[in-house]
Request: fold
Amino acid sequence: MRIVLMAVDDEFAGEMQRHLYETRPDSIVGSVISACPIYKHSKIGGAVFVLRKSGLSFLATMIHVKIVRYFLDRQNRLLPSQLARSHGVEQFVSTNINDEESVAKLRSWNPDLIISTNFSHYVGKTVRESIARYGCWNVHKSLLPQYRGMAPSFHALLEAASTVGATLHVMDKGFDTGDLLAQVEVPVTEVDSVYSLNRRTSQAGGKLLTSFLDHYDPRSTKASPQPGGGWKNYTYPTRSEIRAFRRKGLHFYKPYDEEKCTVGKAWQAWQGTRIHLKNRLTEG
Reply:
């Protein structure tokens, strides 16, 4: 199995990819790193977009979290670029995964699967359907169809969800609307912040991906359509949503209580939930 991974170069994507590198390092033949955390925006343009959408307070909080994480937990934080480099996997930095250069690079790796892990680009039909032998998958940090789109952990906390999760699904033309391959539940705790919930769902998603691949048979595996209905597509938090979030006493980031929010505790909680292993349609 030849696998190409696509990601923003952040620690959440690293958590999604970590277990695949640990269990199937020889299967990963290429790593695409997004040059833009927000699709079609430079880093400065992305900051301006967030400032206009979510306000100065939110932007400052995000920058603060990144700085704190950079200095406090460098040893435990793994980025996709670090994982690829340490395993000798070729990397390609893309500003638009659908452009001619990016498509040519993907084809050169001759993948069986392309897997998106916290990737920031819209993936067009050519990449989704005509490059990888078995198609294009995505790991999303929610129990789809709940919390489609952006910032699922923020919106789950704002809406007082008791359970979130991670979903592995086939990519289609919509955002997080493709057929389901597998899901895992992750309970929300009273000490969770946006950061801790992002991290725990990313870890659960990475383990889910590895577990699914262990049982994956492209000849017989079939996916299940997502439930119908008027499911909301979420975007970046608005200023009013952020004010409501803060009024509820919720947090974007706070230091881990090691007795309550360690990786081991998250893994124990993940093991105690029900995993839904769906089957996937073989693409002709």
